[in-house]
TrEMBL record:
<comment type="similarity">
    <text>Belongs to the HAK/KUP transporter (TC 2.A.72.3) family.</text>
</comment>
<feature type="domain" description="K+ potassium transporter C-terminal">
    <location>
        <begin position="263"/>
        <end position="497"/>
    </location>
</feature>
<keyword id="KW-0472">Membrane</keyword>
<dbReference type="Pfam" id="PF02705">
    <property type="entry name" value="K_trans"/>
</dbReference>
<feature type="transmembrane region" description="Helical">
    <location>
        <begin position="212"/>
        <end position="231"/>
    </location>
</feature>
<dbReference type="InterPro" id="IPR053951">
    <property type="entry name" value="K_trans_N"/>
</dbReference>
<dbReference type="InterPro" id="IPR053952">
    <property type="entry name" value="K_trans_C"/>
</dbReference>
<feature type="transmembrane region" description="Helical">
    <location>
        <begin position="73"/>
        <end position="93"/>
    </location>
</feature>
<feature type="transmembrane region" description="Helical">
    <location>
        <begin position="182"/>
        <end position="200"/>
    </location>
</feature>
<protein>
    <submittedName>
        <fullName>Potassium transporter 8</fullName>
    </submittedName>
</protein>
<keyword id="KW-0813">Transport</keyword>
<dbReference type="GO" id="GO:0005886">
    <property type="term" value="C:plasma membrane"/>
</dbReference>
<feature type="transmembrane region" description="Helical">
    <location>
        <begin position="31"/>
        <end position="52"/>
    </location>
</feature>
<dbReference type="Pfam" id="PF22776">
    <property type="entry name" value="K_trans_C"/>
</dbReference>
<feature type="transmembrane region" description="Helical">
    <location>
        <begin position="125"/>
        <end position="145"/>
    </location>
</feature>
<keyword id="KW-1133">Transmembrane helix</keyword>
<feature type="domain" description="K+ potassium transporter integral membrane">
    <location>
        <begin position="2"/>
        <end position="250"/>
    </location>
</feature>
Length: 498
């Protein structure tokens, strides 16, 4: 019991280390060494001195902290304590934001809205849903217990459990990351783990006196994370196992065995290689597609901004006659997706620049798999001093024009430089791309429903059909989904039997 009380003396001081994602290690070390630690020592020394002199007043030693404070200083000390609680809670909140972000990146937590509050530091984030959830949990615990002792017991068990888990993981870091001997790792684990195990056992004694709360909350979040991770992994495995091979595409011929209609079909996919199953599902049910196909993928990288000249990765799928391309757009966490008109223009220009810079030797290559793996970094039109640009009515230029035939639709022209000269095959491909752009662009998004296979166990059916489906329907859509123009967006539904 005494160890449990001593443990409460260190709870709160460790909260400042949750700010590692927002401040440097040096600043935290200086603040802890010269401000936090001396203040704690002085406060506990003063309280110990008061207890040693006035312990006869109370038989049960139930002397509160504010009793030991002189009466004239009680209100200022109370104000400082409130500010300290605000700072400590803010550290816990920001630490929770960082953990949730990492869990979302690993596919272990449902998608939430992540707001980056800094254009320079990636760790400074704000998550509205988690912030409101923490507020509701704090109010529930405070109203439910109405006892500071029970809240302290819950906090103590949570803190010592984190310390014990951190010590165990640190021993693995010593062996796997630092490549030190197993003896050193075991010595570290035994020395610090034995001390923390004593405090942990002392906290378990108070399990029924409030310490059960962090255990119950951990169990709830464990179930949520397990269900989401399990469903996400099964969905990804289905995508990988059922993606269409290039040989299947080549067997269909240049027309892909379907009616090729005018326009550009932009198929969104999370895969960066191969053809998604949603494409074959669409063709099976509606054997008609656009004359130009683009498998489009959006990837967010952990940098504030991606340079415009490194925005797009463009490659070709199959021979030139198929008119199938792959495009990967890279965005930083502080980049804003362009409006649909600007985005379409940049995308088409990047494909046109890829066609121009590809060269005629690619058409003579017989290894289509190798061609698919080759992707070129193509920037936005503003970054190409001598690249292809798109013409509209307001533009005036001295560059050579490749005109499209007269059609009663929007007028589109590509402006290409005088040199190098473009061969006939490349010019024909650019001509077809212009005609497709004039006919319009359709955004095709896959809407997948994950269901357990027939004959699956009862637990799997509950987890996939009910748990994961509930979390999927109540989590946020990817941020790019709302950026596509709704008038030209087509959602294709498909059931994944996992």
């Amino acid at each position: 019991m005494s160890l449990g009380g001593i443990l409460l003396c260190i709870t709160g001081s460790e909260a400042m280390f949750a700010d590692l994602g927002h401040f440097s290690q040096l600043s935290i070390k200086i603040a802890f060494s010269f401000v936090v630690y001396p203040s704690l020592i002085l406060a506990y020394m003063g309280q110990a001195a008061y207890l040693s002199k006035h312990h006869i007043i109370e038989n049960d030693y139930q002397i509160g902290f504010y009793v030991s404070v002189p009466e004239k200083l009680r209100w200022p000390v109370l104000a400082i304590a409130i500010l300290a609680a605000v700072v400590g809670s803010q550290a816990i909140i920001t630490g929770t934001f960082s953990i949730i972000k990492q869990c979302c990146a690993l596919g272990c937590f449902p998608r939430v809205k992540i707001v980056h509050t800094s254009s320079k530091i990636c760790g400074q984030i704000y998550i509205p849903e988690i912030n409101w959830t923490l507020m509701l949990l704090c109010l529930a615990v405070t109203i439910g217990f109405r006892n500071a002792k029970h809240i302290s017991n819950a906090s103590g068990l949570a803190v010592i459990t984190v310390m014990l888990v951190t010590t165990c993981l640190m021993s693995l870091v010593i062996v796997l990351c630092w490549n030190r001997s197993v003896v050193l790792a075991l010595s570290f684990l035994f020395f610090f783990g034995s001390i923390e195990a004593l405090y942990f056992s002392a906290s378990l004694i108070k399990f029924l006196e409030g310490a059960w709360v962090p255990v119950a909350l951990s169990f709830i979040f464990l179930i949520i994370m397990f269900v989401w991770h399990y469903g996400t992994m099964k969905k990804y495995e289905f995508d990988v196992q059922n993606k269409v091979s290039l040989n299947w595409l080549l067997s269909l011929g240049p027309n892909l065995g379907i009616v090729r209609v005018r326009g550009i079909g932009l198929i969104h996919t999370d895969l960066i290689s191969g053809i998604p199953a949603i494409f074959s599902h669409f063709l099976t049910n509606l054997p008609a597609f656009h004359q130009v196909l683009v498998l489009f993928c959006i990837k967010y990288v952990p940098v504030p901004h991606v340079k415009p000249e490194e925005r797009f990765l463009v490659g070709r799928i199959g021979p030139k006659g198929y008119r199938v391309y792959r495009c990967i757009a890279r965005y930083g966490y502080h980049d804003v997706l362009l409006d649909d008109v600007k985005f379409e223009k940049d995308l088409v220009c990047s494909i046109a620049e890829f066609i121009r810079s590809e060269g005629p030797e690619s058409s003579r290559s017989s290894n289509n798999t190798e061609n698919e793996a080759k992707m070129a970094v193509i920037g936005t039109p503003s970054t190409h001093a001598r690249g292809i640009k798109m013409w509209d009515d307001e533009d005036s230029t001295e560059l050579k024009e490749v005109n499209s035939p007269e059609v009663p639709r929007k007028r589109v022209r590509f402006l290409v430089p005088e040199s190098p000269q473009i061969d006939r095959e490349t010019r024909a491909e650019l001509q077809e791309l212009m005609e497709a752009r004039e006919a319009g662009m359709a955004f095709i998004l896959g809407h997948c429903y994950v269901k357990a296979k027939t004959g699956s166990s009862l637990i799997k059916r509950i987890v996939v059909n009910f748990g994961y489906d509930f979390l999927r329907r109540n989590s946020r859509e990817p941020s790019y989904a709302s950026s596509f123009p709704r008038a030209s967006t087509l959602e294709v539904g498909m059931i994944y039997h996992v």
